[in-house]
Backbone:
């Protein structure tokens, strides 16, 4: 997608620090952190939202959760725990129309921090 900011980050067109990368996903820091640790797992394929996962592309969802496990271990927050969030569509509060998973942690999270 030519004008998608997360496509540009994931394909390196916009330089960003990758905390993790494989053939399917990258992990970056959220520009507006809502917790001590706030990361985003971005798919390398443009998938607009969780509604669009299907049998062809569900490997991206699986790889996203593999990335969650690896990057939280790397940062040492896996044992304490963290929260993974996907906002989908208008009611879900999705602002960037390229599927991504938030990882929030590094502190005790309040129940309404989502
Ligand atoms: P959502 O509301 O679920 O679509 O989340 C979009 C997230 O992307 C927000 O938490 C933003 O702070 C974050 N964000 C937007 N642009 C960038 C960027 N260029 N680099 C890192 N994070 C970004
Ligand atoms: Zn995109």
Residues:
């Amino acid at each position: 997608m030519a004008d998608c900011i997360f496509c540009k980050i994931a394909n390196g067109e916009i330089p960003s620090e990758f905390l993790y990368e494989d053939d399917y996903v990258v992990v970056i820091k959220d520009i507006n952190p809502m917790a001590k640790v706030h990361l985003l797992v971005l798919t390398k394929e443009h998938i607009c939202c969780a509604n669009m996962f299907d049998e062809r592309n569900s490997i991206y969802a699986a790889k996203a959760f593999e990335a969650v496990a690896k990057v939280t271990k790397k940062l040492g927050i896996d044992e304490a725990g963290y929260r993974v969030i996907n906002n989908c569509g208008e009611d879900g509060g999705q602002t960037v129309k390229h599927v991504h998973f938030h990882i929030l942690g590094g502190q005790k999270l309040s129940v309404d921090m989502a």
In short: Helices lie at 5-10, 58-75, 89-92.
